[in-house]
Structures are given as C-alpha cells and as structure tokens.
Inverse folding.
C-alpha cells in the first residue's frame, strides 16, 4: 500500500509535530535522568520499578512518533510513491496503567499524559492517511500512482 501525506497533512503539520515530539523527548530525558533522582529516593521499591517502567514507555512512545514523522517527511520530500511496510507504520506501544501512574510525582504524570496525547494524535493522523488511501477505488489508486511516477 502506498501512503503519502494527504493534502491536508502539510509539511508544516509534520514539522510542527516533529518539533513538539523532540521538545517533549528532551523534557522527558531531562526529568527522568536528572530531576527525578530526589523523587526516586522518596519512593518505595515498587514505586521505583513503576517509575522506571513508565519512563521507558514514555521514551518508546516518543521514539515511535519521531520515527513515524521522519518517515512521513522522507516520503513527502523524496519518494511519495514508496510502499509503506509494517515497519514504516507507527508502532504499537504499551499502555500506561492508571494505578501505577497515579502514585508517581506530578511532573512524571504530566510527561506521561503528554506523551500519550501526542501518540494518540499521531496515531489518528496515520489512521486518516491510511484511510484516505484505502478509500480510493483500485482504478483511482492506479491513476494516482501513474501520476506520481510521471
């Protein structure tokens, strides 16, 4: 299946989401690596394990988003007719558990919520792109691919 950004998904949208993802990734790294040391010292061992798991989930979510956005940018700029394989789709990520996240410091909860929200928006965007492509009849898809080739 060929998936290229629809006209509604401009380079500005992709770039804005990319910047948002990178800023959030930097904030998460700074918090989970540096600023959380004091917070971890006040946690129980079980809370520390939950904290570590959630930091990995945030990182994974954000890296999936960044990779997908970079793929979309490359497809739009260089190869709009490239077939998108499963490896180029937005990856599935583990869900955060409300029970464990509610016991974490507020800063961690905010980062977790922000990463979940960004991932959900990008997932919606990907679903829309795939949906638009599959809405086309086979003849229209072939016509579209021919127009892209020439």
């Amino acid at each position: 299946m060929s998936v290229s950004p629809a006209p509604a998904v401009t380079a500005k949208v992709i770039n804005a989401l990319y910047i948002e993802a990178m800023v959030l990734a930097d904030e998460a790294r700074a918090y989970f690596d540096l600023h959380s040391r004091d917070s971890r010292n006040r946690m129980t061992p079980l809370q520390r394990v939950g904290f570590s798991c959630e930091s990995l989930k945030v990182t994974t979510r954000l890296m999936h988003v960044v990779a997908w956005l970079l793929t979309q940018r490359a497809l739009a700029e260089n190869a709009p007719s490239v077939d998108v394989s499963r490896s180029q789709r937005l990856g599935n990520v583990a869900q955060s558990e409300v029970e464990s996240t509610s016991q974490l410091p507020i800063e961690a909860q905010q980062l977790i919520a922000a990463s979940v929200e960004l991932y959900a928006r990008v997932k919606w965007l990907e679903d829309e792109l795939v949906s638009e492509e599959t809405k086309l009849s086979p003849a229209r898809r072939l016509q579209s691919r021919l127009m892209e080739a020439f």
Summary: DSSP finds six helices and no strands in the chain. Residues 45-77 form the longest helix (33 residues). The two ends are 19 Å apart (CA to CA). The mean pLDDT is 82.
